[in-house]
Amino acid sequence: MTSENTPDSDIQEEVPQDSPASIGQMLREARESQGLTQAQVGSRIKLREALVKDLENDHFDNIPNNTYVKGYVTNYARALDLELAPLQKRLQEQLVHTEHGMKSFSRKTSNKAAEQRVNWISYIIILVLIGLSVLWWLQRSEQAANPDFSQPTQEEIAAQEQDTNLLDEAEALLREANAIEQKLSDEEETPAAPAEEQGDEAEPQTEEPPHTVSLEEVAEQPELAQNLAQLEQSAAEQALVSLRLLADCWMQISDADGAMIVNGLKKSGHEIELAAKTPLKFVIGAPQAVSLSIDGETVDLSSYQDTVARFSYPQSES
């Protein structure tokens, strides 16, 4: 019987293995050959049964560090009186392969985490930009809905500056006219040279009244006359507009050049005074809420009750 079994065992030993047994398989086979359970081995090496199962199943990722794995395997082998050298060699080969896989997995995990952080940062930046855009739009809407009527508009400021320039030009022309008039008066008051005596008695000279220079004479000066004419023409084309709001009202007023001098909603109690070049065009949304006068004369808006007032000043002749 013994001679017959020996060839079979030799044949089995000569059968090549596809791959070497893992460290877990080697430990499990050694334990089972001695008829021990996992709990008994764990009791000998002071390990929980779950850790013994992880060692035999090669689940080293459940163990915090490879140093612990090496220590557990060494204790396991000593508890079963196994030879350490082949076990440690196989364990080292297996751990190298496991570490390479873990590093690849760690790199993938790190790259994925970095991508997720970049994505989250991008989302946060986009949300902040959207929030700022919404805030800016709300502020613009609030400003448009509640304009500050306590400050003059750009059209009113432009009209006031135009009035100031006209007054400055008028004062300059008057000063120039007064200077010319004074100069002419001084020339009239200068005494003439004495006349030659004719005879024993000189005839008494009649005293002439002083010559007064009128604006018409001043106007005879070419340059000054041109300036006065331009000033008179500019003043004639200007109209003084006075508005007082009895209630909130939307309106538009444009001058002869098409420039919009008043535009938008005006609040109750708001007053406007401006000078503008005629003809003027008016569009008043609520005529009953407006008191209007042009050049000191009140404009009757009663015919525009319950409708938008659209008219020009001065009225065009039909």
TrEMBL record:
InterPro entries named in the record: Bact_Cytoskel_RodZ (IPR050400), Cro/C1-type_HTH (IPR001387), Lambda_DNA-bd_dom_sf (IPR010982), RodZ-like_C (IPR025194)
Gene3D superfamilies per UniProt: lambda repressor-like DNA-binding domains
Keyword vocabulary terms for this entry: Membrane, Transmembrane, Transmembrane helix
Acidic residues compositional bias, start-end: 197-206
Transmembrane segments: 120-138
Annotated spans, Disordered: 1-25, 182-214
A GO molecular function held by the record: DNA binding
Matches recorded under SUPFAM superfamilies: lambda repressor-like DNA-binding domains (SSF47413)
Pfam families the UniProt entry points to: HTH_25 (PF13413), RodZ_C (PF13464)
Domain HTH cro/C1-type per the UniProt entry, residue ranges: 27-58
Protein name: HTH cro/C1-type domain-containing protein
